[in-house]
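Hey,
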Amino acid sequence: MAKPTAGRAQQLPADSVRQIQQVQQLPTVRIQAGLPSRYAVGSRTLTLDSVALAQYRSGTVADVLSARTPLYIKNYGPGQLSSISIRGTSARHTAVLWNGLNISLPSLGESDFALLPNSGATQVQVQHGPASALYGSSAIGGTVLLSSPARWNTGPRASVQTELGSFGLQANSLEGGFSNARVAVRTSASQRSAQNDFPFEVREASGMVRHRQENSAFRQWSLAQDVQLRTGQHSEWQAAAWLTDADRQIQPSMGSANTHARQRDQSRRLLAGYHHVAARHETGVRVAWFEDVLNYRSDDVTSNSRVQTTQAQADHTFTFRPNASLRVGAEAQHFSGRVDGYQQSIDENRYAGFVLLRYDPRPTLHLTANLRQALLPGRRAPLTPTLGAKWQFWQTTTQMLSVKANASRSYRAPTLNERFWPTGDPNLAPESGLGYEGGLTHEWKPQEGLALQSELTGYHQLVDNWVQWLPDRLGRYTPKNLRQVRAQGVEAGTHLRWTHLRYQLRAGVEYAYTQSRKVRGYNDDPDPVNQQLAYVPLHAAAFSTDHSWRRWVLSTVLTYTGTRFIDATGSNKLPGYTLLNATVGHTVRVTPAWSATVLVQGFNLTNLVYQSYEYRAMPLRSGSVSLRVNWH
């Protein structure tokens, strides 16, 4: 928006001039610590707001990402393993951070998003593309950021919700908190379970035959605690804990024997941090301890795993000018693994140092230059620089158009399984990626209450030393640095917000065209060159609307997932599918402080028969009803 000139100010009434002067004389405020995303200029970032998260409060991060983004979540069934693919890479190429610290399972090198309840965080962000200079190992395809930023001066508040749904679904959640100018506390607990004995249809010689799913029940609970304390105008302390526990029966493939497989996943995450912010300097220190337990058993196999991770981070930011800052820091990780299948217990250390530079030569031009070097045991990780730029080159009173660009190198350290499994290779080289992206962002606000934001991004990325598990001469699978993979594509998104009297509309559409292929391999790599990788849809899209009128809400979500090959040959594939979900709710205000909301949700409303992963049944039409009571 254009600012008033001095001449215009002189023409204003005297009372208006005094009001402007009073607004400009702001009281002393507390300086906020700068987030790492400040140094991610030129990258595409999606933020899921409270409106989207509220409808999946008793669900998982997998539920909200699959519904509100075009990201492909490979789902083995409701409550089952849910792995992510960003820009045509695998789940091992996505870093998942909780309050700035990587929580991916060190043994597998990835996160199961079905084990991450939404109650553990109040904000979910997805940064697309390489970001190893900011977030370290695995940030090749993208990064998922889970956090719970403090809400200051809100006073006491509480909310409780209970939900019943199809196939024995029961879910309960409780969240409470308090904050003033110095203390912010949030406690959140959730529990969900389901029998998942849903009917599904299979095409047989006689036609479509209906079966009922067996061995697919699950039970899951989560407890999250966040505390932030301000001591003076410049210092802030933080403590957080996130405990999760899931006991799942492993859904068998359609047509296969039931081996009564079952898996127990437990995670304990503890974090403490301190920030000191002065006029030109900022210092941050964080330490964390994680423990991940994964125990699997079936009629034939029993496997137990326990991995403990200790992490420490420290950084210092120098602000040379209001438009220039430099952050230097280091981090250390210690892994202690006790895994059935390893020949011995594993203890190892990893280190990294980084430098982040942000410079805004003009109010409309933002530049970043970042650098990270990791030290890995027994191997050398590549140096990972990042350059980013964003230029707002056109602006009127109602519109703004910007161009952005980013170039980055990234890496992924081999997982513990890839190195220490009996058939693993301790000499595996780290994977290395080189990516470029560029695009346009457009903002249009023709009037008060109406805003439209659009973004178009194109990208190109090469990943070298891509690790693939392949059978050896004895039929044993072993990991090898076998290939170079090229991922390229286009991402587009538009989001509309409109308010008219007591009606509010939020609508968004996201589309992704993703081409991911092996472009170079070696003689012992049987997969063909220039073939779209398995389980990477070429086209994906998501369209959502959120309507609010008086005390009613109505939301619709329409997602499309394109055809996916299920192997490297390109001869077998799963058809694309379109899912329609909807939510309707009504809030009753009992007193000024108390309110109750009833939500009715429907899933797969078109009763579509589909598969996200080969031979894994998905439920037909289903629904749930919930009651939420809020106090503030």
